[in-house]
Amino acid sequence: MVIICDTRQQAGKHKNIERYFERNGIETVRHKLDVGDYAVEGVPISVDTKQDLSEVYCNLITDHDRFRRECVRAKDSGIRLIVLVEDSSVSCLEDVKDWQNPRVVQWNWAVERGLRPMGKAPPISSKRLYGIMRTMTENYGIQWEFCHKNSTGKRIVELLTK
Predict the structure, then answer these.
(1) For residue 57, what are the CA distances in angstroms to 72, 84, 102, 117, 131?
(2) Tens digits of per-residue pLDDT, 129-147?
């Protein structure tokens, strides 16, 4: 098996994934991917990794248009985009509703102390984030998967060989 790693993935940044591939004899090549971070030639699946739900939050709220364009590109190309989130506090999409968003915690902490919170508006709730993620699934076929950082490499291989 040869896994294509997107050239925009910083080499050395995902040592846990690189070590898993190396230990298991999985060859990798760096090549620009239209969507996602990892793919296999001829397989219409791409895995996009996120370091945690905070990164998902930024993608869906701060960079929503860019992320949506990537989802549209995947759908239009017939590629199933799987977003693999390295967050051991969440095991499935439903769990996102109960996620402790650090932005909400910080906002509430500042408000309770009479301080001016950062940002112009309060951050969205975890339930709202869950709703946006569900909408991305319904509209673009995005599949959300969750894993512990130690099992990301293994999970990427499993997802790409389904």
Answers:
(1) 19, 14, 11, 18, 12
(2) 999 999 999 999 999 999 9
Angstrom CA distances, 21 to 4, 6, 111, 132, 143, stand at: 12, 15, 46, 32, 23
**CB 45: neighbour CB atoms within 10 A?**
18
pLDDT digits (tens, 9 = 90+) for 50-88: 999 999 999 999 899 999 999 999 999 999 999 999 999
**Contacts (Cβ under 8 Å, ≥6 apart) of 110:** 116, 117, 118
Biggest CA–CA distance in the chain, Å, is 57
**pTM, two decimal places:** 0.90
Left, alpha or beta for 92 (phi > 0: left; psi -120 to 50: alpha)?
A: beta
Half-sphere exposure of 148 (CA within 13 A, CB side): 2
| Domain 2-160 class in CATH | alpha beta
Residue ranges covered by each domain of the chain: 2-160
Residue 34: what are its φ and ψ, rounded to 5°? -70, -35
Q: How far apart are CA 116 and CA 107, in angstroms?
A: 9
- Per the rule left: phi > 0, alpha: psi between -120 and 50, beta: everything else, 134 is alpha
Q: What share of the chain is helix, strand, coil (3-state, %, to 5)?
A: 50, 15, 35
